Amino acid sequence: MKRNLFIDTNVYLTFYHFSNEDLKELKKLIALINTDNIQLYMPEQTKNEFSRNREVKIADSLDKIRGTKLGNQFPMICHSYDEYESMKKAIKNFEVNKNKLLEKLQHDAETETLLADEILNQLFSKAIFIETSNDILNRSVLRYDIGNPPGKDKSYGDAINWESLLKRVPKSHDLYFISDDKDYYSKLNDKRFNEYLLKEWKKKKSSDLHYFRRLTDFFKSYYPDIEISSETEKEIIIRNLFEAYSFENAKSVVRKLIKFDNFSVKQLNDITAAFISNNQIYWIKDDYVISNAGREIIEKNKDKIDSILYFNYKHEYE
User: Fold this and answer.
1) Beta bridge partners of 129
2) CA 294, CA 309: separation in Å to the nearest integer?
3) Which of 16, 97, 175, 255, CA to CA, is 20 to 30 A from 7?
4) Which has the closest alpha carbon to 289: 259, 252, 260?
5) Model confidence over 161-212: pLDDT tens digits?
6) Domain boundaries, the chain
């Protein structure tokens, strides 16, 4: 089942600042979107907040780097030791490289060519964009003015994001919500979502909302074994073969799989095992999508596949 995901502005901005988050997490997210495991929602308000605050975060990071210094004052008793000379050289090299790094960062930040820019732009292009319509704006102003969360500092921004999600995410579909904004978490327990908003979501959308403070926490809960490599999307799709929950879903996954080639021996064995074990695949073995994939991926590589697995495959599909 595809997971509907919202990531708040403050989470995106951590990738320009001091954080335990890693850009690899965003690459995982892109791979999961490409393989139809996740649908990312991007309210216009979130994108505008990001654009307004990107330079602020980067400037603060650069200032902190500029202020980083290694102590270069040593008592006279150190001066006769070789280690003292090595440390003095290391401090000088540190300052030289720090200045070079700052110069490059300044250039790439101004031209929006930081690695974070490249990955986030790619991620944003894959999201469902939610325009701030007059209806969304009016509802946001009303909820803030009558005192309903979310909202703070005489700003309607959080309310606009919330109303955008209420408007666009399909009814009966769960939402996975990632934010470290205090407006969204419970005042009694900051690991829980705001109770008023949670009840509102359940009432209006007839679904659950799953809350996380960090992107890494979301991945630990649902995709703990994914490691980024050139094979990531292929591996995710193969895993989806085992988890296909309907005939249409199985065919959708197989269509994505057949676009790839050069499968490893392990991947071929896993694909064959999925074709044997998942009844949503083998019950429609005569469907063109399934039978074609069997011929092109499994049968053409039979010499690489475990002999018992291949025997069971042939027994099931003949």
Assistant:
1) 42
2) 13
3) 255
4) 252
5) 999 999 999 999 999 999 999 889 888 988 899 999 999 999 999 999 999 9
6) 3-61+119-222, 232-317
